[in-house]
Amino acid sequence: MANRLYNKQISPKGYKRGGGVTGKTTTTKTTTTTKSEKKPGIIRRTIGKIRKKVIPTFDEQFAKARKNKQKTFTSTRDDKKKGKLEYSTKTAAEVKAAKKRMSDRERARVGDTSKQLSEKGAAFKLARRMGKKEFTHKGKKYTTLLAL
């Protein structure tokens, strides 16, 4: 335990004790070197390429479909569990931006009724535009005055 604490301590110069500094850039008079991750060998790279062709991950399929400018794609990873589903290539941010751009009429065409006026609201709006003090909706009288 004491050894673990010793290795996590930081010296006044900012370097950790118990080993060299990794991931830092060292500069000499002529060259700059950076420690980087080890690249996979030729066998692992070949296996990775074959796997991408035979059984690509969902993210790889999504990226490929976006690159090919497809609107939807069918995933090969989950067809046994969920059936043949088609997925959109839009990101969540793109969908959110598209919803902001849609007008109330376009939303109604799609089937979203959250921004549409109710029957009573439409009757109220019509009565206000006509300048009436009150209107009737489903046999009941309502006023067009707004509450403050």
TrEMBL record:
This is Uncharacterized protein.
